[in-house]
Amino acid sequence: MTERIPVAFAVRDAVATDLDTLVSFTIQEAREAEGRRLDEPTVRRGVLAAFGDAPPSRYWVAEDRRGAIVAMISTTPEWSDFRAGEYWWVQSLFVVPEHRRSGLLELLLAHLAAEARRGGALELRLYVHAGNERASRAYRRCGFRSAPYAIMTRPVE
Fold this sequence. Notes:
About 30% of the residues lie in helices and about 25% in strands.
């Protein structure tokens, strides 16, 4: 992976006061990646869970020199009994349009990889919507490869 780490941005752990931005970015991400319109109160509850007791996920944000949040990334762990460790699933990744192609993707993934190593994670994983070729190309450029698995779903009715 060729790393273009921009010095104009800094990554930090997200905090509860970032909630409005994280919710907004999540809604924009779903619209862009899948053409989906999400229910804002549901997204708010989902993101807020990351700041409660026993959080199911963790968020980081990237800020520009003025302190404005310009990107986010989050992970959700999955336990592997095969390998006795966690896979970290990238769940939310969003870069505001005017900062795309600035190296923020690489910065966020490098930061996440360092956190994952410190946390003892086995590897980073993600899924990308089949029709989102732009994201697929970007992830491949950053070292992700197709896995020998297909994601299947079933309603729990």
